[in-house]
Design a protein that fits this description.
The protein is α/β, with parallel strands linked by helices and about 170 residues long. It has a single domain, classed as Rossmann fold, CATH 3.40.50. It is built from seven helices and five strands. It has a five-stranded parallel beta sheet. Helix 1 packs across helix 7 and helix 2 packs across helix 3. The chain starts with 7 loop residues before the first strand and ends with a helix.
Length: about 170
C-alpha cells in the first residue's frame, strides 16, 4: 500500500470502457491497474451470482470495501458503474483525480451484450435509464469527461495521461 493513493480513478456508465482504458493508462504511467469489479470477482465469485444469491445490497457492501481499499493504493483505479452511488465512496473521491468515461447508447449496444451485467439484462433501454439516474453523480465527481463512443481507447488513454501531467 502507498499513502499517495490512487493516481487516477475512472468512473462512468457500464460499457464505457473504463477497464480497457484503465489498462492503457496504467501501462503509460507504469503503475498497476486495480479494477474493483475484478477484485470482487476474485474474492467472492461472479457478480451476477452475488446479485442472484445474496442480493444487490450485499454486492454493494462488498463493492464499497473493494473501492475503499483500492483508493488507498498507488494505481489507476477503475470503479464499477454503480460504485459512485455510495455516499462514502463519493466522499473518498472528493480528493482524487477522477475521469468520467461516457458512451452513446448506440455505441454501448454491442458492448453490453452477453448477460454478465445483472442490472442491464433488459438491454439499452435499461442502460439508458440507469445512466440517466447516475449522470448527476458522475458529473459532480469528475474533473474530466471523455466520450469513448468514437475515439480509440489508446487515444483516450493518452488524453488522460496528458491531463494528469498538466494538472
Amino acid at each position: 500500500m502507498n499513502d499517495d493513493g490512487a493516481v487516477v480513478v475512472l468512473i462512468g456508465a457500464p460499457g464505457a470502457g473504463k477497464t480497457r482504458t484503465g489498462k492503457r493508462v496504467a501501462r503509460l504511467l507504469n503503475v498497476p491497474l486495480i479494477d474493483t469489479d475484478k477484485r470482487i470477482v476474485a474474492e467472492h465469485g461472479p457478480i451476477a451470482n452475488i446479485f442472484a444469491t445474496q442480493g444487490a445490497e450485499h454486492f454493494r457492501a462488498l463493492e464499497r470495501d473493494a473501492v475503499a481499499r483500492a483508493l488507498t493504493e498507488h494505481a489507476v483505479v477503475t470503479l464499477g458503474g454503480g460504485a459512485v452511488l455510495n455516499p462514502d465512496t463519493q466522499a473518498d473521491l472528493a480528493g482524487k483525480r477522477v475521469v468520467q468515461l461516457t458512451v452513446s447508447p448506440e455505441s454501448v449496444a454491442l458492448r453490453i451484450l452477453g448477460g454478465k451485467r445483472p442490472l442491464l439484462k433488459d438491454g439499452v433501454a435499461a442502460w439508458s435509464k440507469l445512466v440517466a439516474e447516475r449522470q448527476p453523480i458522475y458529473d459532480r465527481l469528475s474533473q474530466l469527461t471523455l466520450d469513448t463512443s468514437h475515439q480509440s481507447l489508446d487515444g483516450i488513454a493518452k488524453q488522460i495521461v496528458n491531463w494528469l501531467q498538466a494538472s
